């Protein structure tokens, strides 16, 4: 415990140094420019927005093989891997189904559960990443209380590396005139197991975590141009792979023994930006997504005999229209979002490891999400801008498989916000908003190979959120402090019913917290950066003797990093991450504390040129101290690992 406290103090000291250095160098005011994160084009780094934005350059994580490894560097973002093997994004301790994931403006969450396994999105598809938190505007669409926006790669890039667990990663992207094409391949035998991990059950080896192998490949293409006074682009990718799912090592019975032998994900996105006049612009996005996965349920950690198989096929198409009109000091934004999705699921029970002669009929589910919204932004003065917006969200459950029909979920959404340019690089913000989060079809109807009881009577969550912010940007650094709060009614959680689980509505829950961060460049070759997020998540009501916590929500996330680049090409970076106290359900459903953890990564490299192209050879040491990182009970994260490689810069 004493060692953990010392490590936390070191992180906070580095964070304070970065923030103090930022304030000491205060300069230059920000200019206002309207930006919307769900569209394709990237925003300027100093653009004004009414919600909290964080940006990430993938070049800062050259060894990342998938989106989850890349996005861990974003502030206020927690990316645990659950017992289904899915790595899901939590923003500011909000629920994962409140986070929309966009790729080139297309909402790529799988609507069946309004989530996306980020470990199955190759990092080679991503050219930039941003997050948006706090009260979001109505134009973000249904169920979007926070957002992660991924932009496709648009430059020559390539990398190859090898590391612990027989991990091989390779990717390449090439620009050919108006087009960019690329592909990637990654495989591993498994994640390294921390030496001090709690693993009394279902752990068959000493060095690699049981059943954490993965193979992931992708092809990608993008073309853009100008057609009939419109800026247009067409982007597509196809991903295929397979992976194992680590069993819960704390359970002698009831652990999942699952594998995904086949996963396929295809996306096609078309974008058009049309000038309808000197002051009017229409952004249009249309997309089609196909997602398929097969889940095999095994009898034991030997993974020899299949007990059951679930085959999922999801088909989704979406449309977004965003109309912007400038009239003097006012900006009018009108939005329409439409998403329709089908989910086909076939559950097959095996007998003595063999499939039945006659396969059962698949279940068919269908839903339609749509929203409409209007927003007015107004420059109250040269330094003050306000916004008010209102919208209406609808989720219509059109087909419900073998379950009874349910009523559509619908409610109004809104936001009011203010930005003040306070001069000398300072910007002050405040916003309050209201949103609905509808239950997903999986929450209402899913059984997860006989692990859940359905609950078609689930109610939508109603969420009121607010934040205030002080942000500064200067020549040699930046700083921000952002208190935030979220109040939820009808929070969707879980309970135990015998050996099964069931999703239920709690009376409600609250989240209060604050983000703090900054960066400082004390020397032209050295950059210090850091961020910390404190978030207190509690139930509004809980039974006598029951712990008033929500599962898998760390009280503190902190990160401190130092980057150094020598004029002759040597590079070095060291990064420390702290995950504070969280709680997780044990085998009887009681919440028990998880370990806190501080892990340290180091990156060493050398930059050089070959054939006129800049390269970097690198060595990456992950989790140097072999720290046990425990995002969920019985499911430790990767231990110490080393990777060596070379990449284009």
Uncertain spans: 1-35, 40-47
How many helical elements? 3
| Distance from first to last alpha carbon | 41 Å
Described by the principal axes of the CA atoms, the overall outline is globular
Number of strands: 34
- The residue fraction in helices comes out at under 10%
Structural class designation: mainly beta
Rg calc = 24 Å
Give the rounded overall mean pLDDT.
90
Portion in beta strands: over 45%
Specify the biggest β-sheet.
Answer: 22 strands, antiparallel, barrel
Characterization of this structure:
By secondary structure, the protein is mainly β. The protein has 3 helices and 34 strands. The chain has helices spanning 2-24, 67-71, 441-445, and strands spanning 52-56, 77-78, 90-91, 99-103, 106-107, 126-133, 146-152, 157-163, 167-176, 179-188, 214-227, 230-244, 258-275, 280-298, 306-327, 330-349, 363-379, 384-400, 409-423, 426-437, 452-453, 461-474, 477-489, 492-497, 500-505, 508-523, 526-539, 556-565, 570-579, 583-585, 591-593, 597-610, 613-622, 641-648. It has a 22-stranded antiparallel β-barrel. A 5-stranded mixed sheet has the order 1-6-7-4-5, with no helix packed on it. A hairpin with an 8-residue loop joins strand 18 and strand 19 (409-423). The longest helix is centred in the N-terminal third of the chain and has 23 residues, at 2-24. Mean pLDDT is 90; it is low at 1-35 and 40-47.
């Amino acid at each position: 415990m004493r060692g953990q406290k010392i490590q936390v103090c070191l992180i906070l000291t580095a964070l304070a140094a970065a923030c103090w250095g930022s304030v000491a160098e205060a300069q230059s005011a920000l200019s206002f420019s309207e930006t919307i994160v769900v569209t394709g084009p990237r925003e300027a780094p100093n653009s004004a927005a009414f919600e909290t934005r964080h940006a990430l350059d993938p070049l800062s994580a050259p060894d990342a093989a998938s989106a989850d490894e890349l996005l861990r560097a974003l502030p206020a973002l927690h990316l645990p891997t659950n017992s289904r093997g899915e790595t899901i994004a939590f923003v500011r301790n909000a629920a994962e189904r409140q986070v929309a994931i966009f790729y080139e403006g297309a909402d790529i969450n799988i609507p069946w559960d309004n989530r996306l396994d980020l470990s199955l999105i190759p990092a080679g598809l991503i050219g930039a990443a941003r997050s948006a938190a706090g009260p979001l505007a109505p134009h973000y669409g249904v169920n979007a209380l926070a957002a992660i926006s991924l932009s496709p790669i648009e430059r020559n890039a390539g990398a190859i590396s090898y590391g612990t667990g027989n991990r091989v990663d390779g990717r390449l992207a090439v620009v050919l005139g108006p087009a960019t094409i690329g592909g990637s391949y990654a495989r591993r035998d498994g994640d390294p197991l921390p030496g001090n991990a709690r693993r009394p059950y279902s752990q068959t080896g000493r060095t690699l975590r049981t059943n954490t192998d993965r193979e992931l490949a992708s092809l990608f293409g993008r073309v853009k141009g100008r057609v009939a006074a419109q800026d247009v682009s067409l982007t597509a990718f196809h991903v295929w792979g397979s992976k194992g799912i680590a069993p819960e090592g704390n359970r002698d019975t009831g652990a999942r023994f699952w594998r995904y032998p086949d996963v396929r994900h295809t996306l096609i996105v078309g974008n058009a930006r049309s000038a309808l006049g000197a002051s009017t612009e229409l952004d249009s996005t249309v997309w089609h997504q196909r997602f398929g996965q097969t889940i095999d349920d095994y009898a034991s950690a030997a993974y020899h005999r299949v007990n059951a198989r679930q085959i999922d096929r999801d088909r989704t198409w979406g449309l977004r229209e965003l109309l912007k009109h400038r009239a003097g000091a006012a900006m009018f934004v009108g939005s329409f979002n439409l998403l329709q999705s089908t989910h086909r699921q076939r559950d097959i029970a095996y007998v003595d490891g063999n499939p039945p002669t006659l396969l059962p009929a698949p279940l068919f589910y269908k839903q339609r999400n749509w929203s409409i919204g209007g927003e007015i932004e107004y420059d109250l003065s040269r330094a003050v801008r306000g916004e008010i917006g209102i919208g209406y969200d609808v989720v219509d459950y059109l087909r419900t498989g073998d379950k009874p029909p349910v009523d559509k979920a619908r409610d109004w959404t809104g936001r009011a916000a203010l930005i003040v340019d306070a001069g000398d690089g300072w910007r002050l913000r405040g916003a309050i908003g209201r949103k609905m989060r509808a239950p997903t079809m999986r929450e209402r109807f899913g059984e997860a190979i006989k692990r859940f009881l359905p609950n078609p009577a689930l109610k939508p969550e109603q969420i009121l959120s607010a934040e205030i912010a002080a942000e500064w940007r200067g020549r040699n650094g930046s700083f921000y402090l952002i208190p935030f709060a979220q109040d939820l009614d009808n929070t969707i959680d879980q309970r135990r019913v015998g050996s099964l689980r069931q999703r239920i509505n709690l009376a409600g829950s609250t989240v209060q917290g604050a983000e703090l961060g900054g960066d400082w460049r004390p020397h032209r070759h050295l950059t210090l950066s850091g961020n910390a997020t404190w978030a207190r998540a509690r139930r509004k009501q809980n039974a006598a003797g029951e712990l008033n916590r929500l599962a898998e929500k760390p009280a503190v996330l902190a990160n401190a990093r130092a980057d150094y680049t020598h004029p002759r090409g040597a590079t070095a970076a060291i990064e420390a991450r702290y995950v504070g106290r969280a709680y997780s359900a044990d085998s009887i459903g009681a919440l028990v504390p998880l370990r806190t953890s501080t892990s340290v990564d180091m990156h060493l490299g050398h930059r050089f040129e070959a054939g006129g192209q800049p390269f970097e050879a690198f060595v990456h040491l992950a989790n140097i101290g072999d720290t046990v990182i425990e995002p969920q009970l019985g499911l430790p994260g990767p231990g110490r690992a080393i990777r060596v490689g070379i990449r284009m810069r």
